[in-house]
Specification:
CATH architecture of the largest domain: 3-Layer(aba) Sandwich
CATH class of the largest domain: Alpha Beta
CATH superfamily of the largest domain: Acetylglutamate kinase-like
Number of helices: 14
Strand order of the largest sheet: 5-6-4-1-7-11-12-10
Mean pLDDT: 88
Oligomer: single chain
Number of strands: 17
Radius of gyration: 22 Å
Low-confidence stretches: 209-215
Strand content: 15-25%
Helix content: 25-40%
Length: about 375
């Protein structure tokens, strides 16, 4: 369960509160983490860092004492803090002759198949040349409300771990473990050393958002664990301030909570499950029964179409499945309820006569 001797590719996520000290980044902490990661690299492992902290650093630079809640100001703080954060990482890793690389991401990268694959190629190349990619949400230009897309980078770390087929995701936070109830409210709360299935009981044990400039919390960490678990990746949630926490986790010490994966879904299935749907296609009972039997979705079963989207987009099917549609929203509205033999007459020759094939349909309880 905690034998990580064969874990070659590791993602380390560091939360805002873990990195911060007195309104800025804790340089000494970054140096300690860099030393541990350099040790892993020397042992032949590959490491990707998911780093929060840019907004907190920017707020500290501006001497803002109160939490920053205005979106535009948070974007400004991120723009100020991101280069400062990367400077700390560069200085810390330079001590070990390790090159780091900055990769800033938005949610849209994961929702489009082409950019999703480009991300993997980019990270794979950086790892091959021995660099340590440092990834963060591009808060300065994100079209989402900051924190809503990735939840203080918890979801981002899981999506990256899933994308690059990581063996282990280490989530360093001010939360030392998953508890059976909120330890801030219950003195008898007990830590859970291992989670084998993320069921409703586990979800209910989650608290709310994190502290100060952070946007995460136990709920986002459980959601992240579910995403990484579907990629066959083990996850360890631990207190980032524990001495030598990264190397000790890799050595098998029982620190924090380990989430064990139940399955390993294909890369394409994971992409469909983790993509944000751009529309909803409502289908009738007969069509739903057909896709449950692994048959293609035909236009005759479409009842209505909501949203505007292009071919190749991920859409919801009712509220129970996601699919990659072969037709645009305009085309789907034109052929809804029609027999497949009528599609080419309506849309033109050489057009597909199915809305989605079984390989492009994934049920949410997959």
């Amino acid at each position: 369960m905690r034998n990580f001797s064969q874990a070659k590719r590791i993602v380390v996520k560091i939360g805002t509160s873990t990195l911060s000290k007195d309104g800025g980044v804790d340089s000494a902490y970054v140096r300690r983490v860099a030393a541990q990661i350099a040790e892993l690299l020397a042992g032949g492992r590959q490491v990707v860092i998911i780093s929060s902290g840019a907004i907190g650093m920017g707020a500290g630079q501006l001497k803002l004492n109160a939490p920053v809640t205005d979106m535009k100001m948070r974007q400004a703080c991120a723009a100020i803090g991101q280069p400062l954060l990367m400077q700390e990482y560069r200085k810390a890793f330079a001590r070990h002759d390790v090159i780091i690389a900055q990769v800033l991401l938005t949610a849209e990268v994961f929702d489009h198949r082409k950019t999703y694959l480009n991300l993997k190629n980019s990270v794979e190349t950086l790892l091959k040349i021995g660099a340590v990619p440092v990834l963060n949400e591009n808060d300065s230009v994100s079209t989402e409300e900051i924190g809503s897309a990735f939840g203080d980078n918890d979801k981002l770390s899981a999506l990256v771990a899933s994308k690059i087929d990581a063996d282990l995701l280490i989530m360093l936070s001010d939360i030392d473990a998953l508890y059976d109830k909120d330890p801030r409210k219950h003195d008898d709360a007990k830590p859970i050393p291992a989670v084998y299935e993320i069921d409703e009981k586990i979800v209910r044990s989650a608290g709310k958002r994190g502290s100060r400039h952070a946007t995460g919390g136990m709920k986002t960490k459980i959601e992240a664990a579910r995403i990484a678990s579907n990629a066959g990746c083990r996850i360890v949630l631990a207190d980032g301030r524990v001495k030598d926490v990264v190397t000790r986790i890799l050595a098998g010490e029982e620190i924090g909570t380990v989430f064990m994966p139940k399955r390993r879904l294909s890369n394409r299935v994971r992409w469909i499950l983790n993509s944000t749907p751009v529309g909803t296609v409502t289908i009738d009972d007969g069509a739903f029964a057909a896709i449950e039997k692994r048959k293609s979705l035909l236009p005759s079963g479409i009842v209505s179409v909501e949203g505007a989207f292009e071919p190749g987009s991920v859409v919801m099917l009712n509220d129970s499945a996601k699919a990659v549609t072969s037709l645009s929203s305009t085309e789907l509205k034109a052929v809804a309820g029609k027999h497949s033999s009528q599609i080419r007459a309506i849309l033109g020759p050489k057009r597909k006569d199915v809305v989605a094939t079984p390989e492009d349909i994934v049920f949410l309880d997959y």
